[in-house]
Amino acid sequence: MRTPLSIRGWRRVVLVLSCALGAAASHAQAYPDGKPVRLVVPYAPGGAADIVARLLAEKLATGLATTVFVENRPGADGAIGGQAVASAKPDGLSLLVTVSSAHTLTPLISKGAPDPVRAFEPVATVGKLGLIAVVRSDFPARTFQEYVAYARSNPGRSSIGSSTSGIALTSEKLKRAAGLPGVVVVPYKGPVFPALLTGEIDMTLDPFNSVSLIKAGKIRPLAVVAEQRNAEFPDVPTLAELGYKDIRYSSWIGVLAPAGTPRPVVDRLNAAIATAMASPDVLKRFQDHHYEVMVTKPAEFAALIASDIAEWKALIASTPAAEK
Length: 324
What we know:
Number of domains: 2
Structural class: alpha/beta
CATH superfamily of the largest domain: Bordetella uptake gene, domain 1
CATH class of the largest domain: Alpha Beta
Number of helices: 11
Strand content: 15-25%
CATH architecture of the largest domain: 3-Layer(aba) Sandwich
Helix content: 40-55%
Number of strands: 11
Shape: globular
Distance between the termini: 61 Å
CATH topology of the largest domain: D-Maltodextrin-Binding Protein, domain 2
């Protein structure tokens, strides 16, 4: 039988709890205590995650009153950069800015990638983006239907380039839906546009990094992989409009900390990110890059990660072994 705590005992409990809560609050108030914050991007400069990380670095430097810098750690489809943060000290000074496929798909298909759930503390998503199917300007197809006809009449001679594993799997699903078994999906470690412009590949599904090339007339958009048409290219249909309703792609861009990062630090980062993303100039630059702002709380982000992992597992299971 337990003996009830005495008044002195309860005072000790209250004192311990007060100290613990006070320490947590002090930790949050002190963070980052003038120390520089590193934003690790698991891709080379120029991609969506890199662009967003540099926007965030500029705003967070003000919001956190410290230096915030971007460090590119490309390789292994996001695993190298992810591991750099997963193994860092959980003090909020090393953060990962990544995209959904690198964080939730790469661990399912590559050895050595950190666990997307156990190795990280979700901080916040900052945006999401779709894809646009593009070909070089002198390619004979002017519509997606014409591309399908060309690929069918030239079996084994057409290819689709992909810059991430997520885009590769989506491309595989698209070619199966269009009945194009002879089309080859070619993975690239960096930007695919040099290969597209020189004719090394015929098409790519691009996360709207190609807007300037489209406007310059160097490449041609055929279809949008999104829920609705893009405002800047209103004449370009969605794949759903063309009959490919099962081809969906919505990639988030988010910020994660190493597992074990104190909750007050995570919450302060989330608040600072929300403030940064609400600034008019960031909203304008997101619009210019055709990214959609989407800021979530840590718990919402964790649920999104779990949902993505389940969806990727289902897509992998439905993909023939020869295409994986």
